[in-house]
Model the fold of this input.
Amino acid sequence: MMTSRTRVLYCESLRNPLLGVSGLPALVAIAHESGARLVVDNTFTSMIMSPLRHGADVVVHLA
Done:
């Protein structure tokens, strides 16, 4: 739930444990309409997906 105090929306581009794909354009819109930043964990799809091209503000890759 987004509130006026929400500053960051965090998601995975490919979600565990079922490997569902996040709807990045919708998440970007939700975050930016609320004045928050979208941070995307792109660990599993770093070679095939670029969340920055979809409007994400920060992309992280975990080791």
